[in-house]
Amino acid sequence: MIDSDNAGARNVFELRDVEYSYEKTLALTNVALDIRQGEKVAILGANGTGKSTLLKLLDALCFPTKGTITAFGQPLTEHLLREQAYAHAFRRRVGLVFQDPDVQLFSPTVWDELAFGPLQLGLPRAEILERIHGVMALMGIEKLKDRPPYRLSGGEKKKVALASVLVVEPDVLLLDEPTASLDPRSQTAFIDMLLEMNERGTTLVAATHDLDILEDIADRACVIGDDHSIAAIASPGNILSDRQFLLATNLIHEHPHRHVDRRHVHPHWHRPHHDHEH
Amino acid sequence: MANTAGGEWALAPVKKAGRGTGSRFVEGTLAGIARTIQDAVFYEELAQRPGLLQNLDPRVRLVGLLALILAVSLAQHIPTLIVFYLVALALALLSRIPAGFFVKRVWLFMPFFTGVVALPVIFNFVTPGRPVVRLLDLGSPWSFAFLSLPREIALTEQGLKTALTLILRVGDSVSLAVLLVTTSRWAHLLKALRVFRVPQVFVLILAMTYRYVFVLLQITSAMLLARKSRTMGHLRGADHRRGLGASGGTLLAKSYHLSDEIYSAMLSRGFAGEARVMDDFRVSGRDWLWLLAVACLSGFIIVLERL
Amino acid sequence: MHIPDGYLSPATSAVMYGVAAPFWYLAGKRVHRSLTGKMVPLLSVLSAFAFTIQMLNVPLPGGTSGHAVGATLMAIILGPWAAVLGITVALVIQAFFFGDGGIWAIGANAFNIAIVGSFLGYGVYRLAAGNALATSRRRVVAAALSGYVALNVSALFTAVELGLQPLLFRAADGSPLYGPYGLAQAIPAIMTGHLFVAGLAEAAITGLVIAYLQKANEPLLRLSDPRGIAARSYRWLWLGLAAVVLLTPLGLIAAGTPWGEWKPAEIQASLGFLPEGMGALQTAWNAPLSGYGLAGLGLTAGYLISGVLGVAAIVLSTLLFGRWLARGETKNHG
């Protein structure tokens, strides 16, 4: 299924027949997908289907072993990324928030973490200070400024990781499991913040297997199946109502339970941290 | 991974189950990890107190304390070494480092190393000289393989002096190093290393190493706890050795994977192999005063000693 | 084996920084060339790994336990140059951020532990492993052996540096200013602990981790040698080993003057300066030392015999250790 309806808004990404394999293991195959400017797209799939790989391809951290990716109207190649001017321009426009904040928080303090991106991209000193100030205010993390990462809670880490990307002010925000390890309240606040950014024009692409947040964070959902190729691209409503499809793509599962005194079978969402507390 | 706020998970006391030999080693490791993290958290807390050393420019503080450690290594006389210890103690008090902690941190662990090392030196069969205390009369000189003992065992003046010099010198050096560690926020200390022309990339590597020490310690802790709960504390030597190989190997594999991911995260934010660090240090009058005091003190003592 | 500040004279510390510096420089260049930007996170996380592995308690026969250094393990996985940097970084972190080990002694500690440990460990491993398959038992034994040998040679260098202190640096009245023990005392004292405790811990960690990776993560074993385990000439390794041997005290005896019998003029010639009070002491320090060598044999013979005994101890312990390790392995496979 390829979405042909790409008239209207400009495409930020166009993927054609993309395949990626690493050390002879196939991670993604036969991917055709357009991402339009200003939209919200969810990449859905069970663990190990290649969602994270797709985000890394979009962020030019790895490159297709077959097929092409076009970004902002220009083919995205390893060769092009070696040119510093292009690399800087690309890194300013596209930001990726990793699933594991420990991977992303490698600096001595929160302040240094926020300064890292702007420093690497060669922004002037005064602007760096101003942007750090702004993003800390936006996320309400001023009091964490001097903390080392190991003194942050899971939710705080997630916020700082997002802030460290937002400080670069990207046009496209790629998010890997944005709500993993967040408690329900921070999750709502986090999603609200993302939506606000989207309204101001930021394109959002979020990989997730949390179906609860799907309708909030996506206009369109792209489902990747167990065969590492796209199983469907449709509206979140359509996908959530098709139970057979959700079962087939391993996004929900069924198994018997004991509820006090009776056994029954009902479907479950696959949550990032799936636990059975019924 | 235990991911709760502020590393408090590691601050909980490690219970001593003490069943089976294997669990003793696992607990030893767990306790060591917890202690390391506790220390780091405590030092970071001390470094934020408004004390004398904390208020100095990090570069100036580093240079000054290193100069003092160097002066200690140049000192020759016991009174000089005592003066340096009093200076370190005074600096600790003025920097709001708890005196009890400061004295214990140095002198409680010292005997295990330097104390034991220095002990034999005081006897006449190691350091010949004027006997101060006579201990034992063997009747005749005695020798076996590498060892040969004189007829009489005694403590010598020269021996006691040598031992005291060593213990004081090591004690002074460790005290000053502890002052550096407890009055410097490590993010600042890192940037301060730049004064020694340490390349930026090395500073970045140090920063990231320190950062990931904590992540790996957490992973190790979680891994060992999981194994301990599975084995219920009953481990034989061979099982434990296998477990050790698995822990080390898993940790290595995880480290490698982690470094791959971190590299992606760095690239994603514009890293191109060249480290750029920003600091905001400013040297004030107070800092110059400190440097002057350090220079005078060290210079004066060292010169005076040699006259 | 970490030398704290206060045991080495400033001159020795400076010399050791000087000796270590070219290795750091070359290692930086080599690693930078082969790994480019990825070097930064890889070295950082693996230095953190070295720090962490040093915290693992290793149970040893007889109910004792020890800690490993991990230099040989790092060298086997990443190659000796990267290991030099990784272990040095771990030492710097320990000294600067935890107050363990000396700051001015970093040069000496890095030379003994990071540089000698990595290169010797790597060399012995390559020689002992030969062209065996990546998953062969021989590689496990080779890893354990190289860890054991490298750690003990590191300890020997440490002992020699400490043992030189009283020969070179004494106060005007003749009492030693820094480490108080001569070579005849420092070498056996330090080596005993390493031959029987620390060396075994290092061998255990190195061997067991390699054995685990053979089963669970073979690609990691091919990192430092992407072309796979190909037949290679080991001549340069033999040469390197020979050089290390020449640098040890035994080699220095052959090079001319026996230890402890240098004349002040010779020391001045080789060091460029005359240590404090040396002239006056010439007779003073010859007397006690010659009296406490191997009874009646004199220093030179004492060293030769210690050397032979040391090598014998290494060979014997390695054989025993290999069997002990293999026993754990066999049980493991059922």
What form of chain A results from the Cα inertia axes? globular
* Strand order within the widest beta sheet of chain A: 6-7-8-3-9-10
Largest sheet of chain C: 2 strands, antiparallel
Radius of gyration of chain C: 21 Å
Helical/strand content category of chain C = mainly alpha
Number of helices of chain A: 11
User: How much helix, percentage-wise, in residues of chain C?
Assistant: over 70%
List low-pLDDT spans of chain C: 226-234, 245-305, 321-334
Protein architecture, described:
- The complex is a heterotrimer of chains A (278), B (307) and C (334).
- Chain A is of the alpha/beta class.
- Chain A contains eleven helices and twelve strands.
- In chain A, helix 5 crosses helix 6 (125-139) and helix 5 (110-120) runs parallel beside helix 7.
- Mean pLDDT of chain A is 84; it is low at 1-8 and 270-278.
- Chain B has a domain at 1-48 and 185-276.
- Chain B has helices at residues 21-47, 58-74, 78-94, 99-107, 110-118, 157-183, 186-192, 200-231, 237-268, 285-306; strands at residues 131-137, 142-144, 147-149, 152-156.
- A two-stranded antiparallel ribbon of chain B has the order 1-4. A two-stranded antiparallel ribbon of chain B has the order 2-3.
- Chain B is mostly helical and 307 residues long.
- In chain B, helix 2 (58-74) runs antiparallel to helix 6, helix 2 runs parallel beside helix 10 (285-306) and helix 3 (78-94) runs parallel beside helix 6.
- Chain B has ten helices and four strands.
- In chain C, a hairpin with a 5-residue loop joins strand 1 (58-59) and strand 2.
- Chain C has helices at residues 10-35, 39-53, 71-78, 80-97, 106-129, 137-168, 183-216, 218-221, 235-247, 249-254, 264-271, 278-291, 299-332; strands at residues 58-59, 65-66.
- Chain C has a two-stranded antiparallel ribbon.
- Chain C is globular and about 60 Å long.
- Chains in contact: A-B, B-C.
- Chains B and C meet through helix 1, helix 2, helix 5, helix 6 and helix 8 of B and helix 1, helix 2, strand 1, helix 4 and helix 7 of C.
